[in-house]
UniProtKB/TrEMBL annotation, chains A, B, C, D:
GO biological process, one term: rhamnose catabolic process
Family matches, as InterPro entries: L-rhamnose_isomerase (IPR050337), Rhamnose_iso-rel (IPR013457), Xyl_isomerase-like_sf (IPR036237)
Organism: Alicyclobacillus tolerans
Keywords linked to the UniProt accession: Isomerase, Manganese, Metal-binding
Protein name (database record): L-rhamnose isomerase / sugar isomerase
Domain of life of the source: Bacteria
GO molecular function, one term: metal ion binding
Length: 406, 406, 406, 406
């Protein structure tokens, strides 16, 4: 039946003018980076529920990430976070990853958990703290060199909780100064991803509060600096795909932190709250891949897709597999958009026709396609089931309770 | 100059028809309960910054609350939270409070930090967990009896993170069943405050998500059950004072958890983000105190005012004193409203006149009044300065770092 | 290929334990009422763009509604709005509808466009205005009797724009008094739907601002009063399906006004912004249809589904057809939920399993099913195409520009 | 008593180190432009309530604006909107203004009410429409020259209602192209203010949706292009004063459209919903006026303060006077900030101290100061009362009902 379903799907898409071979090729190439911290315990400010089987160190986190890659075939890299993943020998960590078919992806500095950073890191009024924060950033570039990663991914938690607490413009200058030094330490092939966030942990102002601030900073720094869009870091109602299309057009979209939200930065499994939004993001990306401008095309094709979630109640590895599958699902649907039809309707100012031409792709059931793609890739057709059937869930129980958390 | 300022204030208000003696009497009677947990370390999910001088146990938290009461004169009770304030002998704890001129206020159950409550407490699908949660609620009623408190204040964190995760209607029934048992254990003079919250820690649905659900539940339970309004627990844009007026009219407003927010449940110092909102809440309360219906009047006069904040970066005791002062400021301003003028304008459908009649009270500087009130009460005119000048800030440093937190 | 697709769909669903015959029966029975005003010109406060072919009166609006019913087979009734659809002889209007296979559905009073209502209708401080508003409500009950409709659908725009503008509690009493009189004029088989709205046209407070206020009012009035949920009338982030499940459990959900929103009350085509939310609403309804309580089941089966949109830029009739199809799509998907599987996972506290059991139904492509259902119903398989192919679009151009608007 | 109040105020401020002469000078110099359309009838999409006495043409609107200037002394210019204020001879209109002590301020193009603009103006897919829109923009520059205004103030309503409706990146390019042509037509002393808006009238995407897009566009165009901040055009929770400080630091803040909002773009009287926000905006501006960078200082001192409200239920002229007074109130309070104290506390990372140093200025009652300032300026001490006492309210009734509206 599965085969039948696939052949029918292929027939339907072919009749619509969709090149199914290209669709499959694209899906196979969609690499989704998973975060080492996504395998650890995490929670809300009210409670971190500890689970059995949580990795106890950076090496075990990589083991879990490797398991996800073996089951999905599309997660070849794992993001690390310093100092959560601090080890004595980063070369050894990279080696450990390589042995399992992985590589180290984005290196994420941490400028929010040291006691000195209570009132800011690179934006702190105290020059000693700013210096310390900058040293950490430079350390992360060094780590990236050691693990042969080309990506530094910076989320800056700096902000204030009260009006008047700090001089906002002064902090803006300090921020630029530190990042300029960080930028100048990058190797030519490296990219610096600059993330923004509407609020939390700061509740009055956040120094990098929105895409506009991240974008302007990236412009000031240079070509290697790009904006990172975390799908949960916006005000309610924000049209995220519009921002995506804007950054693509400016050749400044570097990557994503995927997750879902209904309220604030809920960090839920991507694709579970409003899957259509994820589909529409991919629609903008695929549209940009066909741009006349080579720079725009290249930007769209060079996006770093990363998952960044906080699994409070979910089993970690299955949650990560589900996340990867959800991303694939919406990407596959977006690949079924008949762009010729969309553009024709747009040119004719046919509002309903253009809306329908995009939405009709969303309504396809792409699960037969994804099963076949997985077969062709030599990974399990049902990665979640395969995970449960493997010995891994039982094996990790040996780690006990009380593994890594943030 | 301070005297001059007060006499001028008195003259102006008297000319407006405001009875300054009654205003002072009202301010002196406004009791504001502080929470034991507000003196401990607290933070965001990203970090709890530990401070020196934090109380190490329930007794020391009461010491801090007593200090705030000595300095302000209007904080005669302290809310406790079980098990954060669990002690072997609650009588002894109450005695400790009495010795310092305090009494134990609302007893707050904790249904969110036990590992068993990860997927719900009284709404958990597992009857054993529900039973355990109910037992804890009943234990809290017992504690209340032992500390001679008449208030149980329930915030229920129960909820789900994903569509389909649970049967929402079934959980609603379980919630009612447990609370009905809790309710039947109350002494006749006791009140049960039912709090609601828009989201967090649950990110898809919260079993008591808004005032409507808390109100309906309180109606089902009976007269001793009332709604508690936490000023930070609403969707963006919600007209909180409208809800306050509605609950007053229904004689179902039990109390407040005061704090400020700009984004979500930010739990900042009350009165720092939008002080006008706090003023407008008091306007509704003072308006209801003049209602023809005795029940409405009594409800308005019997509100439990409680502070509930999470001081992430602030020194705890000064933050609490500032909070108390901010509440007094807005209350004092609301007492300067010329209700005759407001009502006349309302009757005449004079939009600008009515708006102005309310707002003009907000624009008065009530600090001279509050200084005189404090003098008359025999407390420091400047409680914050008095705190800094006392030996207390130095004395508590002996507690070291690593005190109580949640 | 279409046949192939359907047979495969049937096979898959049958294997999952879904009774396809029952699914089809349910879809055929899902009646969706369209609003007469949805066929007229409408716009934003900035501009109403006038289109050619807009109906010039109530009779022509019914013609358009009848066309939509002929093409979809599931829109047997049309809501009317007084005075927009005021005619001399309502019996004649009903007759006109019957001749075209339609009946008149909900009668909607208008309490917001008379000059007297600028500062409120049934909540106005002026008793003469309140009396006039009540008279209009009673007139609408009379109209309902004349057109043999059993539904009165009340949206109350009353509210204020400024703090202090009016006595909120007094208005609450006036509101109850008028609705109590309206209620007492209902025939026993009639229902009164009470709608709520977060804001607009009032920008400070709205007298019926949320479901809690509408629900309490319906409880006070009696069994024939029920709450109407307009999907665009909530604060950002509100879990609408939770409210739906709550009202179902209380047997107080009367009906829906379907539309889509991204920001405020955008009144866009239903199902175009976040189709998953619509699916989840139907999930709650279908869940309630299986309740042990007969009253809950009956409530769920007796919901009045109505579209209420404001087509600013869209061609009106195609927009309505698209809306009806979008509702059917999400309803059909929800009918594919394997409730046994969902409940089993819920009982086992299997978060990922339960979430997946609901979402997997959303991922089916139900278009083959809907095509077959339409065939079996004897309506066009593609209603939009059939509309374009009919002479109707051309025929209505004779109406010219400048038809009905609100 | 008024005198006593002022002398006490002066004494208090002087003791705090505030130079009261400079404060008064600043208040007198704060020019607030009123909009011609604010004197006309306006409303919501549900109803425009027509009032008696509304100006019937551009000349009468200027009469009303002149009245507001006579009564307040701080509204020397009036913004016009083309074609709402289209006249045959703009020189004559300017002359009419001059005779009454006014000048014409910002010229506002209208790109949203022509039928051709239904799906966009300068972003329309149709080159003929784009050309027409550009011609209108150039016409407005011509009008500005004729009325000797140096400010073009552009609000672009362009956007889409549905995903897929249009190519977002293509529209971005068309937008730039038109504005580049507009920009090149400016005289050297002219400024182009670029406004942004979160949503409405478009409900899916707005081509200039946030400050980041307006800022980038202004950067691309050149020095004469600056961003205009309308206080009601942001997502809920947005920290507007942060954006203000950011734009000041970048020397790209051109002006404000002042109004209040609680929900969306409510366009209520400025200072009535959250007066503290307005105060905090002025805090940022006054802070920037002391910057070491001359460009930042000049930018802060050269801001165009404009009111942009939609008076739905209010009498127009009194609403405008109240708005002007509310702006003055918050400005005067901000001028009482002890910046030395603020900066000292900021340098010491004294969170509570710095917060208090800003907020304490907000708590002063500046009405005695404003009365004296008005006396010194030779305008009525109570402008609203003076308006009611003047013959003007009666005189304009001759205009009848049915004046200008938008």
């Amino acid at each position: 039946m599965s085969d039948k379903a696939y052949y029918l799907f292929e027939e339907i898409q072919t009749n619509r003018g969709i090149r199914i071979d290209k669709v499959k090729e694209k899906i196979k190439k969609l690499a989704i980076e998973t975060p080492s911290w996504g395998y650890g315990d995490s929670g809300t400010r009210f409670k971190v529920f500890q689970k059995a089987g949580i990795p106890r160190n950076a090496f075990e986190k990589i083991d879990d990430a490797a398991m996800v890659h073996r089951l999905t075939g599309v997660c070849p890299s794992v993001a690390i976070h310093i100092p959560w993943d601090k080890v004595e020998d980063y070369g050894q960590l990279a080696e450990h990853a390589h042995h399992q078919g992985l590589r180290i992806g984005a290196v994420n500095p941490n400028l929010f958990q040291d006691n000195d950073y209570m009132l800011g890191s690179v934006c702190n009024v105290d020059p000693i703290v700013r210096k310390k924060a900058l040293a950490h950033l430079l350390e992360c570039v060094q780590v990236a060199k050691e693990v042969q990663s080309d990506n530094i991914s910076l989320w800056l938690a700096d902000g204030t909780n009260y009006p008047g607490q700090a001089n906002l413009r002064q902090r803006k200058h300090w921020l630029y100064e530190s990042l300029a030094e960080l930028y100048s330490s990058l190797l030519p092939q490296m990219r610096l991803f600059i993330e923004y966030k509407f609020f939390e942990p700061a509740f009055y102002h956040t120094d990098l509060a929105d895409w506009g601030m991240a974008f302007h900073l990236a412009n000031q720094l240079g070509q290697q600096a790009q904006v990172l869009v975390d799908t949960g870091h916006h005000a309610q109602g924000t049209n995220v795909e519009h921002i995506v299309s804007y950054l693509l057009d400016e050749q400044k979209l570097g990557g994503f932190h995927f997750n879902s939200r209904k309220y604030a930065d809920d960090d839920l499994i991507v694709g579970t709250m409003n899957p259509y939004e994820l589909f529409l993001i991919f629609y903008q990306i695929l549209d940009a891949e066909q741009d006349v401008d080579a720079g725009v095309r290249k930007t769209a094709e060079n996006i770093a897709y990363m998952i960044d979630q906080s699994h409070v109640i979910e089993p970690k590895i299955p949650a990560m597999i589900r996340s990867v599958m959800n991303v694939q699902t919406q990407y596959a649907k977006a690949l079924c958009i008949d762009f010729v039809k969309v553009r024709q309707a747009q040119l004719e100012n046919d509002v309903l026709g253009a809306e329908n031409a995009v939405r009709e792709a969303f309504e396809f059931d792409v699960s037969p396609l994804l099963r076949v793609v997985r077969e062709e890739m030599g990974v399990p057709v049902d990665p979640l089931q395969a995970y449960e059937a493997s010995g891994y869930p039982k094996q990790i129980l040996e780690r006990g309770v009380g593994g890594a958390s943030w």
